[in-house]
Amino acid sequence: MPAAVRWCLLLGAVGSVAWSTGDHTTVPQLRAHLDKNPQVVPGGSDPALSGIHHHHTSGHIDAVLAPPPTHARKSSHTHTRTRNSTLAPAPTVAPASTPDSDQKLSHGGSHGQPPLCAGADPLLTQLLEAEGLGEVVRNNSMGFWVGISGSLPPLSPSTFPSPTPHKDQQLPRSAGAALGWSDPTAVPPKLAALTDVVPSGSLTKTFTAAAVMRLVDAGEIDLDEPVVPFANIVLIRQGHTSLGDLYPPIISNVSFRDLLSMRSGLSDYGSSAVHVATETELDVDLNPIAYLLNDTLTPKKTIWRCGNTTACDPPTYNSVGFLILALALAGHANVSRWEDYDQISPSSMDRYPGLTFFKHGPCSTYTNVTHYYDYDSRRGYVDQINTSCLNGWGFGNVGLPATTAALFYYDLLGRTSPAKVVSPEAVIEMEQWGKVLAGHWWERYGLGLMWLPLERYAEAVPTTAGFEPYSFAVGHNGEDYGTYVHAAYQPMLDVSIAIMMSKVAVLWVNGTRVQYPEVLWCMAYRAVFKYLGKGELGEAAFVCNDRTRPPLPPTQPSHFW
Fold first, then answer.
1. Cα–Cα dist 448/458, whole Å
2. For the residues 209-229, what does the mean pLDDT come to?
3. Distances in Å between the alpha carbon of 89 and those of 59, 164, 458, 521, 549?
């Protein structure tokens, strides 16, 4: 019996369990045991497996790269979630009719068995199940994906077939897991798979930044030269006005660096206006020209937020700047229309399977795009599969599997990648962190990269003994209406981690409302730390308690890389 199938069956027999690594079977022991005993299957009498300590987890939450190329609008502007400083208690009982309640039992539910996994890494899947994630995901009829890439522990080829979706079997090694469903309403429900493409919003910004930095590496542009002459090429060729006619005169001095670092005084689009536009015109793509020319979508173009300078302080999160950068890449590529710029190079397609940059049409017209659900207070969950997948060209139009996202960020930032995306000098430039983004608690921005404190994004306690060097990651978060994505490099582990989910709002566990979806990321981080041999540290640092929040952050983070 193939090892992956054997592990999936084991999951079905064991159900949702959590193990400890005290006097019980440890992860390395379990690896070794299964390597030596490939005949082990659920239902048998195996004394080694009796060492797995399991308990009910129902209450767990409470205790481009290319050379320069309903229904609600999916917005990558809200790449981070604001929090209230006052933490109201969550309701203890779900409403009588919760979203998808009719589907819970048929889709597994708290009393169903975990479905068979689809080519996922068996140990990672088991660890995620042990944290209770599988139960939460199935109870909410959603999909949840985890990908990791980098300096991972070696696996025996005989017992653990390589889960890597790419042909390179050297370091970095990749592993992934998929829980729940990519289409829970299908008959029968379609299981989530490693190949599922998840619309990932603002992860696009890192791809756009990497494309710019590749041109910088090649000496074809300078970070500090004006971006407008390049961006105007495509605008004018398509019969539109120049950026100088839309924005204050200072726009002509804005550099690539200003936009990449989010320090320009450029106004951003109005997310509520974009939301309304696509509620009334469900099949319309809001293309880059619409964002630039439509005064309703981007209403404050004549306002420059920092007087006569192009480098505002502090930086402010801005998506339209990355749209202009993408236009500049298209202009440098000498194409006639924005659609003609290819954000994926042929070599990238081979190395990054499933990497997709949406341009026109609904998500249902693209290969392997998962169903994902925006929550509407009147209608409940609304499937976004038949709405435009474009989101925001250059700043929010990427979709990809979690394993591919993890591999890309490792190729960009990791130490042992054989396929570096940009030069080490370019990475140093990208990691020049500005001040905390205006309106944020912790997050700092580099050039298309974010400094992401795990206190904010994985419910971690940074004061845990020995945890400080692990307490942040470098990458980007992204959102669509319905998806929430975290993809980042953890320098101390030399591993990139990507976590993706197909529902965000109004999640429930055992009738209790989940206040912050990042608690699911916390559970995933606990599992990943165990997988990487840091289980004791992960158990102590990632509290995964949705009912407590950390205090307000210090003015100056104490730990930087």
1. 21
2. 97
3. 16, 42, 19, 20, 11
Residue 272 three-state SS: helix
Please, what is the Cα angle at 504 between 88 and 540, to 5 degrees?
65
pLDDT in tens, 307-318: 888 889 899 999
Q: Over 209-252, what HEC string results?
A: HHHHHHHHHCCCCCCCCECHHHHHHHHHHCCCCCHHHCCCHHHH
| pLDDT given at position 126 | 94
Q: Residue 137: which of 483, 507, 482, 457 has the closest Cα?
A: 507
- Tens of pLDDT, residues 416-449: 999 999 999 999 999 999 999 988 878 899 999 9
3-state secondary structure at position 159:
coil
Residue 328 amino acid letter: A
Q: Quick one: DSSP state of residue 321?
A: H
Tens digit of each residue's pLDDT (9 = 90 or more) over 371-383: 999 988 888 899 9
Q: Which of 149, 123, 139 is nearest to 6 (CA)?
A: 123
Query: For residue 95, what are the contacts with CB-CB under 8 A and spacing of at least 6?
Result: none
Task: Please state, in angstroms and as integers, the Cα–Cα distance from residue 203 to each residue in 385, 420, 475, 500, 525, following that order.
Answer: 19, 18, 8, 12, 19
pLDDT surpassing 80 at residue 234: yes
CB neighbour list of residue 329: distance below 8 Å, 6 or more residues apart: 68, 69, 208, 211, 212, 215, 230, 341, 394
pLDDT at 155: 54
Give Cα separations from 499 to 331, 404, 525, 527 (angstroms): 34, 11, 9, 12
Q: What is the mean pLDDT of the chain?
A: 77
Q: How far apart are CA 164 and CA 205, in angstroms?
A: 25
Contact between residue 196 and residue 144 where contact means Cβ atoms under 8 Å apart: no
